Amino acid sequence: MAALTAALATVGLALAVACVAALALFFGPGPAARHGAATTVILRPGAHLAEIAADLRREGVISSDTLFIVGAELSGAARRLKAGEYAFPSRASLSSVMRAIAEGRVVRHFITIPEGVTSEFVMETLNKADFLTGYAPAPAEGSVLPETYEVRRGDDRAAVLRRMMDARDALLASLWAHRRADLPYKTPEEAVILASIVEKETARPDERPRIAAVFLNRLKAGMPLQSDPTVIYGLTGGKPLGHGLRVSELASATPYNTYKVVGLPPTPIGNPGRAALAAALDPPRTDELYFVANGTGGHSFSATLAEHQQNVTRWRAIEAQRACQSAAAAAQGAASAAHAAAASTHGATPAAKVPAKC
Q: Is residue 105 a contact partner of residue 86, using CB atoms and an 8 Å limit?
């Protein structure tokens, strides 16, 4: 009996030590990341518990796949483990690894589509996202809602694109249902066309409704929209020209040249955002027909051609002043450089030529 008691005590002690060791492994710091501050592991859909444990052990996230399996079974986490991409910090405990997988704390990826970009840019963005899979057809211009979209590794590009298009359709349907009653649009797509022009004309949200009102007043009056961004789109498909519009370009014969063609262009010139769409469908009632840059990042608006010409004259003066200041600064820099070079070469300090004042 004494021997049996001693044996049982020894076994009990061994079990207690084993339990303490297992708990230390389960809740204590795990292995250090092999590279960097975290280890990324992708758990495939449908993977069973043993496969998940083996993947984690192979990648060096946990030190014991057996302990992971036992812990998952005893805690009930085995039935809640979720597939996906995970980034485990260096020395994460086995319990925290298990909890992260059970709660589905996968790596979050985001796709951002800026307001006003073309559908070509949308496709470039989707194709560059190497965490996505599959192929997506090019969407029609203006059919995508610019937003930031959360995606997961392995998501299909076509499915992500469909989400972007569905978001635009839902927003457009809502705005169309509550549009101002007297707008001249025949279809919601015409509103998208105007919104895409408004988007390109100003970066200031507070100006978008007013600019939309100007364009709508022009449409009602049978006046050409005379929008520079439409001309550029007709020439380059929306890519920057790299220079100001030339007289020859303003005379270009494209269906997007709203200096030559009265009415809306045939398609949107980009993908307008929420604010531009809302502005095109619920603009203020004004009699304004003109706007021009005012030198502060915004525009001066006017209802008459005479007032507009005064605003244009002020803007031209601002442009001339800026050009003069830029030239003066460049001349001053060149003169200072020449002065320094002459002084270091000849030991003399000739008088630097002072640029003309603006």
A: yes
Return the amino acid letter for 65.
Answer: D
Q: How far apart are CA 171 and CA 167, in angstroms?
A: 6
Query: Residue 43: its pLDDT value, please?
Result: 95
Tokens of 98: 């298990």
Query: How is residue 255 written in tokens?
Result: 């269906």
Q: What are phi and psi of 148, to 5 degrees?
A: -105, 125
Other Cβ atoms closer than 10 A to 345 = 8
Pick the closest to residue 114 from 273, 298, 263, 299 (CA basis).
273
Residue 211 to residue 195: CA distance in whole angstroms: 10
CA gap 129, 113 in Å, rounded: 12
Dihedrals phi, psi of 242, to nearest 5 degrees: 90, 0
Beta-carbon contacts of 183 under 8 Å, excluding residues fewer than 6 positions away, are 191, 216, 281
Q: How many CB atoms lie within 10 A of CB 144?
A: 25
Q: What is the pLDDT of residue 342?
A: 62
Q: What's at 79, amino acid-wise? A: R
- DSSP class of residue 31 equals P
Which parts of the chain sit beneath pLDDT 50?
Answer: 17-18
Domains and CATH numbers, the chain: 30-107 (3.30.1490.480), 109-169 (no CATH), 185-288 (no CATH), 289-342+351-358 (3.30.160.60)
Which stretches of 239-304 are DSSP H helices? 247-250, 274-281
Burial of 253 per CB tally in 10 Å (0-12, 13-18, 19+): exposed
Give the tokens for residue 114.
């800026």
Give the integer Cα–Cα distance in Å for 94 and 216.
63
**Contact (Cβ atoms closer than 8 angstroms) between residue 191 and residue 277:** yes
- Is residue 190 within 8 A of residue 216, CB to CB? The reply is no
Q: What sign for the dihedral angle of Cα 119, 120, 125, 129?
A: positive
Model pTM?
Answer: 0.78
